[in-house]
Amino acid sequence: MRTLVVLLLLSFSVEARAAGSKPKAEKTKASAEHSSSAAFSGKLLVVPMDGSHWVGIKAIAQELGRRGHKVTVVIPEVSMRMGPGKHYDTLTHTVPYGQDHIDAIMSMHKDVLKTNQPFMERMQVKYNQILKIVDFIHVTAESLLLNETYISYLAQQEFDAVLTDPMVPTGALIARKLGLPIINLLRGIPCSLDMKSAGCPSPPSFVPRFFTGLSDKMNFKERVINTLVALIEPLFCRLLYWRFNNIAHQFLNEEVSVAEVLSDSDIWLLRIDFTLEFPRPLMPNMILVGGINCDLRKPLPKNLEQWVSGKHGFIVFTLGSAIADMPEEITSVFLEAFRQIPQTVIWRYTGMVPDNIPKNIKLMKWVPQNDLLAHPGARAFITHAGSHGTFEGLCHGVPMLMVPIAGDQPDNAARMENRGVGVVLDITTMTTESLLQGLNEVINDTRYKENIQRLSALHKDRPVDPLELSVFWTEFVMRHKGAKHLKAAVHDLSWIQYYCLDVIALLAAIVLLFVILTVKCMKLCLQKLGRKRKQD
Amino acid sequence: MRTLVVLLLLSFSVEARAAGSKPKAEKTKASAEHSSSAAFSGKLLVVPMDGSHWVGIKAIAQELGRRGHKVTVVIPEVSMRMGPGKHYDTLTHTVPYGQDHIDAIMSMHKDVLKTNQPFMERMQVKYNQILKIVDFIHVTAESLLLNETYISYLAQQEFDAVLTDPMVPTGALIARKLGLPIINLLRGIPCSLDMKSAGCPSPPSFVPRFFTGLSDKMNFKERVINTLVALIEPLFCRLLYWRFNNIAHQFLNEEVSVAEVLSDSDIWLLRIDFTLEFPRPLMPNMILVGGINCDLRKPLPKNLEQWVSGKHGFIVFTLGSAIADMPEEITSVFLEAFRQIPQTVIWRYTGMVPDNIPKNIKLMKWVPQNDLLAHPGARAFITHAGSHGTFEGLCHGVPMLMVPIAGDQPDNAARMENRGVGVVLDITTMTTESLLQGLNEVINDTRYKENIQRLSALHKDRPVDPLELSVFWTEFVMRHKGAKHLKAAVHDLSWIQYYCLDVIALLAAIVLLFVILTVKCMKLCLQKLGRKRKQD
């Protein structure tokens, strides 16, 4: 389907790849539908990130287009999920790989899930997978940024702002090149580069770091671990972004790091919410839009109606867009467990269909996850605890059985378990019995349902819908050409100045000098007193 | 008028003051008007602070009452500004002073403004004034808190939450006694007790402290000053609140400080906005509602129409509710300057009316300040730069001539001047010439008007109106019996733990040990090597 759409693109003219290709633009209905009633109509450039990161960006792009802005989304000619939409234009750029390369990367998750691998072998597989993904990201970025014809085409469009996902700083680099304000949408950068760039304090005493699985209430040992992780974060950032730092030098022709480029950001739309996240300091230009995808709901397709209307309700089972297939031994654990429960199971599954599938299971290549979770018959949600899925489960108040696999998923899962709204299992060591027990808990122990409904009520009780809020702040930046008045004056400070270490050193020196002088004076006095006594 | 209203109160029964009096309740139309259509109807206790602090609290109380909540406002039987309203009930409590005592305190400002006083004498006058105000605040608080009959009446009312101004922690103490969640409305506590209680980081490298007049961009010397002020802030807090700490012990029967009581607060509604304030870190339970009074606009009274319709426009001149009178020598400076300008001047003035008042001046005992500023003919606003007035000037885009007198006024004025929207003068040293020059600048130099209109546009471009937002979060706390999920886990941490000083000490010790061991090892190796060479 996607390939067909790409073939239908209204191309300008395609030059040789090596010399740089001009952008291919797809004119959708968006332009025609631009409402003349809109008070302000801006031009927005959107540089999204692929995979699940696309969901939130697409929602904002669609809504802005619908409100009469001219929205242009830059996407590679082949991708995992990105594609055209009703209310925005897409502008594709060439990449030196094909769909098969993407499929190969997607299927690598299956190898990671193999249960009978020795530890070292599994680490090797994981490492190779990360290397391949990182390489894929860099190659995609380079083929866009170093395509001079394409970039100068963008420069001519006179955009008002760039909406992007800063995890991959391609959009931020383009914004700097074109002198445009930046709106970031993100869940969080693992090495806290987002917080550092926004100048946001993150005291390690109550702000747990990524991947630590810690909460905001830490004992001494946990605080030591968290502080150590906080101390090595800058190093981790360098590792993550060294190649992008090189690309930045090459692309911008200036000695600037990704951190500095991101520190120019005007607005940070954070896909977090404190019903899930631990409360932490924020900066004035950080806007919380966790749960942005909750209200994007459509009616269920007809073929699913019989599956959701059973008296025992149903279970939704998806492991996100990245994992649609899994090793046979894990599949059979799930199948065996599902055979023994009265609920129907709607399972997103793209692998080989095994024999003897129980009657209560419906396998589908794609499921309308949010619409299913919104159905009152949904009893449980088996999920990898990706941030989008977690928010959808929370939004509709469905207890979760979580099998986190990578990235922020273990952290998300730990937080949900901590709030008593779900159970966490290790997918590689899970047995039919432990799965059954977990399902039994989240379905039949009413506390899970009560807890998630209470949390859901808190989450949804907000003055402005997160999508509306995202659109508002994007429009704000377009209207005012930035949001400078919300940026803290931390970017000219070195870290020594930021923490006032120079001031502390001066004050300590003064105190020390005072103490030394006092001691010397006292000694002198005592000596004189001693001499006087001797003379007496 | 106010006395009449008090006399009309529906009193329960009044016992001897010494023994504690029962509350007098005024039943207004509020109860009758409670809308049955409201989805949720709560019971809110409001414990306001007098003076200009009353404005914002009153607006929220009115709006909540209008939406169908039962709002009860606790006020002393005599006060500066507080009184009944259409949509809330008032519950008065006795105080051991009369209106004459309040009038005496109000008129003390005049003494502070005397221009020909020696420095030491002026300081003495200021000190006496502060002592009297502080005593007034404590006596008022004690007469409410130690009135057992009154407090037990409040306890029986089953309120859902307390809305209060934490600068005077009476409301917070009552909330703790009755086990109720707290919503605070404030501009900021000078010793940063608000930030400390909310666990909000305030790095002295870019967060200027109260009274320093510093901006967010500081050189080394300024950072030293700011850090020193930050270091003595806890001491200043102790000085400010030691008597309230004693009242807290006595009232609550527990060893708890005001800081601890305030750290239980659920929501902090901060009357700040980053068009005026320097961007700084915030906590998730801090909601910005600066400019809450901007939209509370009424049409101008008829008798003012001829004064605002002149072709040269008009000047609004008020020095806030506390200062309505001033020494003759200052009055004559203003009169002489106004005589020489073409604009009309609408001046809030309650003192002796001098002879020979120029024809372009209208003196009034009270002026509809916000409504006048909203009029397109307003050319300049002469103000003491109190926070409410500053926001009103900003809201309506009127350039300001500022004569700050006390409290946060010098800081507010410095920030406005820093943004090029006004001129600051010292009221005690000002001459007719300097005043004329200042007025000429703000009225005729178009940059001032342009700057404040740009700033005004930024200030008013927000997703939710600040009054609406205040009401939302107050209702949120009433609905959910608090907002625990927004409170950072900092309150069980000592300051050593908060700053991870224990962790740093441990890590430093390990590093030191490692260095010592390495050095020792190397020494040993060198010694052995030396011996071996000797043997060779």
TrEMBL record, chains A, B:
Residues 1-18 form the signal peptide. Pfam families: UDPGT. InterPro entries: UDP-glycosyltransferase (IPR050271), UDP_glucos_trans (IPR002213), UDP_glycos_trans_CS (IPR035595). It is an enzyme of class 2 (transferase). CDD domains: GT1_Gtf-like. It comes from the Eukaryota. The chain crosses the membrane at residues 503-526. Its EC number is 2.4.1.17. Keywords: Endoplasmic reticulum, Glycoprotein, Glycosyltransferase, Membrane, Signal, Transferase, Transmembrane, Transmembrane helix. Gene3D superfamilies: Glycogen Phosphorylase B. PROSITE patterns: UDPGT. One of its GO terms (molecular function) is glucuronosyltransferase activity. It is found in: Endoplasmic reticulum membrane. It is a single-pass membrane protein. Belongs to the UDP-glycosyltransferase family. This is glucuronosyltransferase. It comes from Oryzias javanicus.
